[in-house]
Design a protein that fits this description.
By secondary structure, this protein is of the alpha+beta class. Helices cover 27% and strands 33% of the residues. It has helices at 51-65, 70-73, 83-98, and strands spanning 2-14, 27-39, 105-113, 116-123. It has a four-stranded antiparallel β-sheet with strand order 1-2-3-4, covered by helices on one side. It starts with a strand and ends in a 7-residue tail after the last strand.
């Protein structure tokens, strides 16, 4: 299986309702967003996905949350904002930008610290992978 990916870091705020401080109070994380597109076969250009397009899609999604309160950006069905829900939202943003890529899977990992992450993976042809 071939892979193409990119990553960047954004600072954003959130609150975990019902949790003691600091998680239960508005606080920030420097989130690292890792994205990987996988396919069994390369396209006619010899690519999994155009890396410039993937990077641009990630930068556009990141621009929506950088410096923002995630509760104000992510939709109600992604509340409370956890790294898993944030990863699903990032996936949705990139899937919209990338469109349908038959046989491709998009995996997102959102790291809230150097050793803790949540993720979401789904196919880019409309069927869920995990």
């Amino acid at each position: 299986m071939y892979e193409t990916g990119t990553a960047l870091t954004v600072t954003a705020f959130h609150v975990m309702p019902g949790m003691p401080p600091p998680e239960g109070e508005r606080h920030s994380h420097d989130y690292r967003l890792d994205v990987v597109v996988r396919r069994d076969d390369l396209d006619e250009r010899g690519m999994v996905v155009d890396l410039d397009v993937l990077d641009g899609a990630l930068r556009a999604a990141a621009a929506r949350v950088d410096g923002a309160d995630l509760e104000g950006v992510l939709p109600p069905d992604a509340q409370p904002v956890t790294v898993e829900m944030f990863a699903r939202w990032v996936h949705g943003q990139l899937a919209t930008s990338l469109g349908t890529l038959p046989g491709a899977t998009l995996a997102i990992r959102v790291w809230e610290s150097p050793d803790a992450f949540g993720g979401y993976t789904a196919d880019l042809d409309g069927t869920s992978s995990s």
